[in-house]
Amino acid sequence: MTAGGRGRVNIMMEAPERSRSFNFSSEELDSSALSSSMSIDRLFPALLECFGIILCGYIAGRANIITSTQAKGLGSFVSKFALPALLFKNMVLLDFGNVIWPFLWSILIAKVCVFFLVCILTLIVASPVSRYSKAGLFSIFATQSNDFALGYPIVEALYQSTYPEYLQYIYLVAPVSLMFLNPIGFALCEIQKWKDQGNHQQSKVVIVGVVVLQVIKNPIVFMVVIGIIAHFVLHQTIPVFMAQFVDGLANSFGGAALFYLGLSMVGQLGKLTKSTVVTLILLTTAKLLLMPLICKDMVDLLDKRNTSALNHSSLSDYAFLYGVFPTAPSVAIYAVYYNAELEVVTAGMVISTFLSAPIMYVSAWLLTIRWTDPQRLMNSLQNVSFNISIVSLVALVWTIAVMFLSKKFKRLPHLFTVNLFFAQVLTCIGMILWNFVVKENNFIGQVLTFTLLCTSLYSTFIWPGLIALSLVLLKSEDLKVSPGMLVIAGWGIPALITAVLLICGEKMFGVIDAAFFYGRAQVIIPGEVIFLFSDLVHFIVYEHQTEYSCNLSGLIISLFVSLPPSGQCESRCESTDCLLVQVEELQQVADRQVARHVLMCLLLTVSLLANLSSCVWLLFNHNPGRLYLELLFFCAVVNYGQGLLSFALFGLDKHLILLPFKKRLYSLWYGKQEEQPQSDLPEEIRMTCTQFTKYHKQQCFHDIVKKRRCGKKTMVDCFLGCELVEWLLQVGLAQDRGEAVLYGTRLQEGGVLQHIKQEYSFQDSPLYYRFMA
User: Fold this and answer.
1) 21-25 vs 768-771, strand pairing mode
2) Which of 38, 185, 370, 527 has the smallest CB count inside 10 Å?
3) DSSP secondary structure string, 187-246?
């Protein structure tokens, strides 16, 4: 393949998911061949730093090291002290002489366009009952980016050594939302409150006054205004006596904000409902796709300065990267304040944050490639596919082993999920093999590898739809469909498509791209398959909210309670066939993990839509351009990196890995302290146990403790961990479920309660515990 001597260059891309044949004009290639305007080598460490701290915060929240109530204190510090100090400092030091104002107006226009587009569509489509609050919050969601905690470190990593002045635009662009757009959203939410009151006691003037007061009271907006005034009064210098104080607060923002972001993600995806899925997809698309495209186009349109092509291109690329920044956590605070659309906003914040990472990395990486070298482009795409296939394969082997060891593969929907995992494994293997056979002139080897790769890849397009269908069928007792027939369809349809391509397709000689191995038909047929099965995923009926299995365990154990009692189990249950333990084990296998399957189907639907867009784009546009190449790389990542998603959702099984790990730690730590005297316990534990025993134990015993059969002739007075958590919340001994778990843990450490077999620490789950005498 060559690129010389002609006005147009034809590039055949290496991405085995579909056909890629597209042309770039020589002018575009020449302008893109300029030296890189960003430092890509620092991007991955910056992403690792940011998302590593976010992960630490999430683990701290998930492990209940920091409860949601305690996290609110950290959030208040970040939003009311650290961030205002950071903004004040940078507003004072800002150099307005180096500001490229067309860039600022471009971002402003882009945000206004997206804001009003989302607002108008929501007002048209949403139910009249809550259309104004939805329009306000959804518009804020689509335009307010996480500029400081997540955006600034990434911009710093990319442009610190090339265009350091780009960093200051973060502080200029952020107030666009805070001071101009957000008040419009707040006004819509206040109108909704005014309509909900019925008697319309507040006048329109009062509503406007409330909105203006909210904006003025916002410490972020207030300090931006003060900082701009101080900029001119202090001549871009912070006085020495307050410089270290301001620096101390400002420097504390980065890590604290990212850690708080991780804390705020805990438990949010469990709030998804059937009515929020489509809304979530549309909002995420508006934030991560529509916003960056409009930002880039506005800069290209408005930046008419007489500068080099490199400067203009770098500013346009910067606008695109800025648009990809995910939604800020503060939007969730607005949703809580107005008590509206909390499920959509919080779940969308989580999804947009993690989807933005690969988009930002791929975008920045592609913008540094020299476009005049087609061979480098093909090799880069092939290397990306090959490398991510290896990592994904390792993750999938672990995940499949977990599925079989937990014995969940025998029941729906996990039966279909395991088939999806096997399809993903074969896809990774096919991609790894293709990386070697494509370098050899072995036609038979290429055909065999092509058959394996295409069949398994097309199968990964189909299985999400079948998993979604299984979730629907599990709720419908009247509909009886043989799982075996669906399994045959999941593998048979892709095999049939591949066979048709092998028989009817025209082999393209001299092409090293598996996606274009059999010509144009290899674009059309997968596009139709993707469309059909991505449409099926939208029929997911998610009416089963994430619940605790208290009702299930109560139903099962009630079968044994009807037997005549013979005795009382007074101490640790030593029976090898304890009925309560059997119930706990049964629940581990019976857990269908509906929320995880819905989330997996949702995220895989996004990848299906990306693949469909790539097919349509290529079929109707013979000159796709640079954005299509970015979509191409994104499709490669999501197609061959599916195993990472599978591992994240199903690889760390709660009952097989996490709980046994905690159980082992518990036995190692507390097993040695069994005989610890009461006087040696920490003061906090002794006070909690004394308070509960003296004032609350009798009432708690009366409310939640029940006699349950644990053996053939024995009964035990016990309760579920989730029942005690609910009781502690009801009586006000805990403010949230995390605090309730900590309270129960103290009672266990103080000897007030214990697990029936002393195998588990106290957990907010359907495990059985008993009070000690």
Assistant:
1) unpaired
2) 370
3) HHHHHHHHHHHSS--S-HHHHHHHHHHHHHH-HHHHHHHHHHHHHHHTTS---HHHHHHH
